[in-house]
Amino acid sequence: MRLATFKHISSKNADYSAAEAYLTFEHDEFTMKPILDENGRLIPREDYSISTLNCGDEDFAIACLRANLRYGKNQKREDVKSHHYIIGFDPKDVPDHGLNVDLAQSLGEKSCKEHFPGHQAIVCTHPDGHNGSGNVHVHIVINSLRIEEVPFMPYMDRPCDTQPGMKHRCTNAAMEYFRAEVMEMCHDAGLYQIDLLNGSKTRVTEREYWAKKKGQLALDEENAVLAEQGLPVKQTKFELTKTSSVKKSK
Length: 250
Hints:
Elements: E1 5-11, H1 17-24, E2 49-53, H2 60-71, E3 82-88, H3 93-97, H4 101-115, E4 119-126, E5 137-146, H5 172-188, H6 206-228, E6 237-240, E7 246-249
Antiparallel strand pairs: 1-3, 2-4, 3-5, 4-5, 6-7
């Protein structure tokens, strides 16, 4: 399957350092909690690239907190503090087109500068997805607050959105624009892509992926118990039917 993906997550977490911790340390793929070693310490991720934009000499968290205080924004619990965008590339781009962490990171930094000007940001590239499929992907996390005046962007619908002290809004129109830009970026870089605007019949939704992942894990555990008891194993592969009902096949 040829696959390029684009996702968005908004966060109301006032702890901006949590975003960097997630990007730089190992986390459990189901609970999203950090994985600790035998001494209770965080385990650094391997082979990643990370950079910040518009943060000056400060780290991302401190820079965001200072900006929020300066403009009196993001002080309430219900305020969206940051936006997290994820660009995922087709695993085949690695052997077929020479995609690596450095190239993906440069594409991510360029995309961030072009589409989120005036925002403090952190850009981080991981060499593999949580499903172990080998898909290189880029995380772009921006402070929801804009700290500089910027040109009017195609996805903006209010003139005031260009001003410092205003907040980024991820509207439906913005997502359509970003998806189109990701498709164009992949095309320009000679990478695989799918139609992110109209979808694909072979795409697997996030819910379907996790249902299958967790179902397979549970089935493997059941089979391990049967094997220890010397009992035959009848089903080895967990599958979801089109109607989302569970189907186990040999």
